[in-house]
Amino acid sequence: MSNLIDLHKWRRLSWPRIVLYVLSVILVLHLLQSFATSSSPSTPSNVLLETTQQQSSVDFPWYNDQHPNMAPLQNRKYTTAHLTTQERDALQASMIEKARAAASEFEITGIPGSIIHTASMAKKFRSLVDCWTTGSWVEDTTHYTMPHFQDPIYGSCDRKYKKSGGTSLRPAVRYTWKSQCDMINVDAQHWCQVLRGRHLLLVGDLVQYQLHELFLDTLRDGPAVCFGELNCKDHTVCEEPETRLRYLRNDILSVRRKMDQNHGHPTANVIEWPFTSSSIMRGYPVVILNRAPVVESDEKFIKGLVETLRVMRKANPSALILYRSTGIGHPFCDDATEPLAKPLDDSFLKKLPHGWSELERRNAMAREIVEAAGGVFIDLAKLTNVRPDGHIGGQDCLRYCIPGPLDSWAQILYQVFLGLEGHLSIEN
């Protein structure tokens, strides 16, 4: 009987022992193989180097460490990351022609709302604007740094820098924009005189709200109360003559007259706050526009922007319309410490997420439409596309801290208003 009990015990214990033995053998074999591989002279050392280079080739130039890939949108109906650079160039040329044809309905030769009334003067002025947005970032620790009084989120970089022990200029503020054409330093009082009491309306995406902050920082001596980033009420930016500033968020510049979606409130994805009513257009004779990088077809983009400018021109034919180009974001921007030496080439642009890979083409299309409608296209994205540094950081690698790279926006806009009012030569 005892022999039978011992046999049952052995059978119960045999399977765990067998499993344990097998695992031990596998572990020993694995260790021996690893040792043989690491010590074998037949394994070339450049295999590991080549693998590392292949991994780093997907990194952006400002990366200090390897990061997970932020894959671009793969919806081939609306994005072109799957195309070759040659195919993307051909598509851009084709869509520019379509945008030009669609905007041919506008028969405006000068720039309404300015002293520029002829096609030749308009062409010269637009060339000068492009000259102001062409140049490079140079390190200059003596340049004027604009103080920031407004939304605390844009001053977070200064707070972090001081908390970390920084005492000198924050790295992103040490650089100033050096354009190919001379620019005059901003004079707030003179700018108010140039505005001549014309109220300003800023319409566009969330980054456009930063332009609202820049105007307040430049033209006011202190903070202004603004509740939220959707529909910020009027602020007085100039006392004499009185000039007011207002911001409305409309990501796609739609001509919607009332907020009839989501029970009368804006949705959380694409904001379309109404701004094209006749009363608003007449009340704000200077409008600065921008369009968010919404994922859609090129044809829809063209149709939408043409319709918007058509409605605006009908409501106020003499309105001065400025359009700010849309810039890219910089994934994992916390790694960046300085400007890029040169713009990203197409191999990098195609890897950008959130539809940013399409912005170069969309901006080129917008230029055709805006200029045909008598507006001024200002390529401010050209300046900030090479500034992966200076962002708010963390999860926000699209917006910038103030002061920082956006100081140059105020500088260039000042030149634009001076030129449109005849306060400087356009023969530069």
TrEMBL record:
UniProt xrefs under InterPro entries: TBL, TBL_C
Entry annotated with the keyword Electron transport: no
Protein keywords: Membrane, Transmembrane, Transmembrane helix
Transmembrane segments: 18-36
GO terms for MF: O-acetyltransferase activity
Keyword Chloroplast included in the entry's annotation: no
A family per Pfam: PC-Esterase
Trichome birefringence-like C-terminal domain sequence ranges: 371-415
Family: Belongs to the PC-esterase family. TBL subfamily.
The protein, known as: Trichome birefringence-like C-terminal domain-containing protein
Organism: Mucor ambiguus
